[in-house]
Give the backbone structure.
Amino acid sequence: MKDGGMQQKLRSEAKALLEQGKVDYIIGFEAGSLKFTTTPLITSDKDDIDRLVINPFIVNNLSVYLSELKGRAGIVVKGCDSRSIVSLLQDNKVARENVVILGVPCSGIIDLGKVEKLVGKDRDEIDDIIQDRDRVVITVDENRREFPIREVLFDNCLGCELPTPQEYDILLGELTSAASDEDKIASQKKINSLKNIPPEQRWEFWRSEFDRCIRCYACRNICPACFCDRCFVEETEPPWVLPVPRWQDNLVFQVIRNMHVAGRCTDCGECERACPVNIPLRSLTREMYDMVDELFHYKAGMDKEASSFLAAYEATDVEDFIR
Ligand code: SF4
Ligand code: SF4
Ligand code: SF4
């Protein structure tokens, strides 16, 4: 089913959920104020439902709102977002009976930065971007150009393992398949090029990247796996980091954040996308995701009945300190 068909189904299902009193509000996407963008829409008014959209720009992982909102919610999720909900269920941050999951089988989200590079134009100069299965048609000054969709997807989408939601109540379209091995490798190119440079050079790379961090906390605030009521960076007795964004403290913030989201991060890519200074945060989060998988055979958000990764141990665990 195409996005238009899914959008229609979403609107009728969401309206029915509100009318029948099965949910108190709907969390979805509406068109953004800028071209080719969407913005979260949280509403309990059924007259707002016709504003809901599904298109290749529904980028946010809306599950981030679930641990803050009270009541019953109908929520629109893609594959990675649904895994974030499962992870929140495992951590008892969300009760399953309080959510109705409207699942979007996902074909990947378009990275406007890649589109701009590809056509050499700013997004304001682009007339149209249309996804048509595995192609994207970009129109600039009435010139239509076609490219393989893989050239404009976010890296995490290019290598997506589970684009169809893991957990849902209503599936809005047909199942979508995982990325090919070739695309999975391509999606890790940026990360691997960093892994393959000597440690001193890599240290220098991160030192200069974190020199640019302004500690806005967008990466933390947008992340559904970062849900502590009080983040360690706000502790004052003792302070873990200074409030001024020195590179050393910025690095400590990011290293500890990565440890806190280990086994909870679903590689949704939102932290990297939200960073206003374009620090390649996925090179850290995806690395942690792969280490957890390799060492513990665990991927976040796959099984709501399983124990939360960081809240469980077994006598057979390799670390002695745990016995
Ligand atoms: S990572 Fe997968 S499920 Fe998530 S937005 Fe990208 S393609 Fe969709
Ligand atoms: S989003 Fe970027 S600039 Fe803001 S705190 Fe995170 S790493 Fe730093
Ligand atoms: S750490 Fe980044 S990629 Fe992982 S769940 Fe949070 S926002 Fe998504």
Residues 110-152 form a domain with the Nuclear Transport Factor 2; Chain: A, fold (CATH 3.10.450). The chain is about 35% helix and 15% strand. The longest helix spans residues 3-19. Residues 127 and 142 are 8 Å apart (CA to CA).
